[in-house]
């Protein structure tokens, strides 16, 4: 596993981790210490110039082949280094017993460079056997075995340690990659959910403002057309009311585009805005509308005000389109929570209980809005007995 692979898996950044740098730095320092120690042991021996030359070859091969080989994980460079280092180290040990100190670096290098066990183990056995044979030139068999055995044992410990680190790095890299993938999937899901929620919100806004306003305009224009010849004064009043409704609809459109609060709430508190839209319904239909404010009006969170206003608009719009009512009663009650109730004496409808919502986009949207502020909607109606819409927000 190359350092680039580990770094790429660990967060996908393509940068080597700090600990990777520290491992290789420690590797280089240990090698340099062993070279210096061997060099110091040779000082003063004027006949040791071949050993100096072999030591120089080792250092040159290490710097030219193994260091860049580790950085790029180049198998050819690493193998080329071993082809040079193994015979040179044995030759150095043959000339001077202290040269076998290099085995403490060479054995771990075999573990780090040769990934295949089928190749690594025969090479290690071959090097150990050669080291014992070389050591016999300077020591007896038992001492030679001990020296090489200690070097081999240390290398085994170092090799196992390095392999554990690399496996942990690989495991951590895979885990981080999975976490990054899961996070990306979660971000995408949240984005899609946000887009869907925003689309639903805009759909509700358009239905509660523009669609209702255009419905009012159509009804006023139809009514004006019916009286244009017989009652000019009533026609003019209806056209004036249609003009005012169109202007308010235009203002609502601009507010919707600018993501502002409803126009009614920009210039008046909630209770005044509810009174205005109820009075406008009375003017349009020529029916009695009454608004009762119970309790002391107070400042409400903007989202709660918008929800209550839209609920009132939707309820009054349904009365305009479907109820055929002659009187409408609106009650806005301020207590521990806030309650909006819209009651009409129209024709009503069936198949609706206090805990269910009849089919219709507007009422479904009303319920969705109210639930967003942790409120509830109760709708009760029966044929010939009118309809009551009650919105409670804690």
UniProtKB/TrEMBL annotation:
Record-annotated membrane-spanning stretches: 24-44, 51-71, 83-107, 119-138, 144-166
Entry EC number(s): 2.7.13.3
Tagged with keyword DNA damage: no
Recorded GO MF terms: kinase activity
Coiled-coil segments on the chain, per record: 172-199
Keyword Signal applies: no
Alphabetized UniProt keyword annotations: 4Fe-4S, Coiled coil, Cytoplasm, Iron, Iron-sulfur, Kinase, Membrane, Metal-binding, Transferase, Transmembrane, Transmembrane helix, Two-component regulatory system
Cofactor(s) listed: [4Fe-4S] cluster
Catalytic reactions of this protein: ATP + protein L-histidine = ADP + protein N-phospho-L-histidine
Protein function: Member of the two-component regulatory system NreB/NreC involved in the control of dissimilatory nitrate/nitrite reduction in response to oxygen. NreB functions as a direct oxygen sensor histidine kinase which is autophosphorylated, in the absence of oxygen, probably at the conserved histidine residue, and transfers its phosphate group probably to a conserved aspartate residue of NreC. NreB/NreC activates the expression of the nitrate (narGHJI) and nitrite (nir) reductase operons, as well as the putative nitrate transporter gene narT.
The protein's name in its UniProt record: Oxygen sensor histidine kinase NreB
């Amino acid at each position: 596993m190359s350092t680039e692979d580990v770094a790429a898996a660990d967060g996908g950044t393509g940068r080597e981790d700090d600990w990777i740098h520290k491992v290789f730095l420690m590797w280089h320092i240990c090698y340099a210490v062993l070279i210096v120690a061997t060099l110091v042991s040779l000082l003063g021996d004027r006949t040791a110039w071949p050993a100096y030359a072999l030591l120089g070859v080792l250092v040159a091969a290490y710097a030219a082949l193994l260091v860049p080989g580790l950085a790029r994980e180049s198998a050819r460079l690493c193998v080329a280094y071993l082809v040079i280092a193994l015979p040179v180290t044995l030759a150095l040990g043959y000339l001077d017993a202290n040269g076998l100190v290099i085995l403490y670096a060479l054995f771990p290098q075999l573990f780090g460079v040769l990934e295949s066990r089928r190749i690594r183990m025969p090479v290690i056995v071959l090097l150990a056997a050669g080291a014992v044979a070389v050591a016999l030139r300077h020591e007896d068999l038992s001492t030679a075995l001990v020296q090489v055995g200690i070097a081999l044992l240390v290398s085994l410990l170092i090799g196992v340690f390095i392999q554990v680190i690399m496996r942990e790095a690989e495991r951590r890299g895979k885990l981080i990659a999975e976490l990054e993938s899961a996070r990306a999937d979660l971000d995408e899901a949240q984005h899609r959910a946000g887009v869907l929620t925003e689309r639903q919100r805009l759909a509700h806004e358009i239905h509660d403002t523009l669609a209702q306003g255009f419905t009012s305009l159509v009804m006023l224009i139809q009514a004006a057309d019916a009286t244009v010849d017989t009652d000019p004064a009533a026609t003019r009043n209806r056209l004036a009311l249609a003009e005012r409704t169109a202007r308010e609809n235009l203002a609502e459109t601009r507010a919707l585009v600018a993501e502002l609060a409803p126009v009614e709430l920009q210039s008046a508190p909630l209770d005044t805005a509810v009174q205005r839209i109820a009075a406008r319904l009375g003017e349009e239909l020529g029916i009695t509308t009454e608004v009762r404010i119970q309790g002391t009006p107070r400042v409400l969170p903007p989202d709660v005000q918008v929800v209550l206003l839209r609920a009132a608009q939707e309820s009054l719009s349904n009365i305009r389109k479907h109820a055929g009512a002659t009187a409408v009663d609106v009650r806005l009650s301020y207590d521990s929570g806030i309650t909006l109730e819209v009651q009409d004496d129209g024709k009503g409808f069936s198949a609706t209980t206090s805990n269910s919502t009849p089919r219709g986009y507007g009422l479904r949207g009303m319920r969705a809005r109210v639930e967003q502020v942790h409120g509830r909607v109760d709708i009760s109606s029966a044929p010939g007995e009118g309809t009551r819409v009650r919105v409670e927000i804690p």
